C-alpha cells in the first residue's frame, strides 16, 4: 500500500512555504527543520507530523530506493506558496515538460521569495543529493 501525500506548511519567520509528503517523510523532514528552529504543520489538521520511532522510519526510508525517491520528491516539492497559490502553480505546470517545470519554478521562486535564507533552493539541493543515494544495507 502506497501512503498518500498530504500538504504541509513550513513555519518560518518570512515566506509561506508548503510541500507535499507522506506522514513519514514529513516527520523526518520536520526533524531536520527543527535543527534550524523551523517547524512543520499539516495544512489540514494544523498539527505537527508525529510518528513513533522516527529513527526506524528514517532507516526504512534509506533502505529502499523507492522510499528514497519519494523522500527526494518531498524535499523537491517545497514551494513559496500558500495552499491556494500552490494549487494555481500546480495547475500551471501540469502539462509542462520536466525542463519547462524546472524553469517555471525557478522564475516563480525568484519573484516570490523575500527571504535571504533561501530555504527552497537548499531543499531542492537536498533532493538532488538524495536522488544520488543508494539504498543502505540492512
Distance between the termini: 21 Å
* Gyration radius over CA: 15 Å
Approximately what portion of the residues adopt beta-strand conformation? 5-15%
Number of domains: 1
Q: Count of helices?
A: 6
Query: What percent of the residues sit in helical stretches (DSSP H or I)?
Result: 40-55%
Strand order across the biggest sheet? Answer: 3-1-2-4
Give the oligomer, counting copies of the same chain as homo and different chains as hetero.
Answer: single chain
**How confident is the prediction overall: mean pLDDT?**
94
> Major beta sheet, specifics?
4 strands, antiparallel
Principal-axes shape call = globular
| Number of E-state strands | 4
Element string (H = helix, E = strand): EEHEHHEHHH
What is the structural class? alpha+beta
Low-confidence stretches: none
Describe the structure concisely:
This protein is an alpha+beta fold.
Question: What do these coordinates show?
Answer:
With 138 residues, the protein is of the alpha+beta class. It has one domain (6-131). Helices cover 51% and strands 12% of the residues. It has helices spanning 23-34, 54-61, 65-76, 83-93, 98-112, 119-131, and strands at 6-11, 17-21, 39-42, 79-80. It has a 4-stranded antiparallel β-sheet with strand order 3-1-2-4.
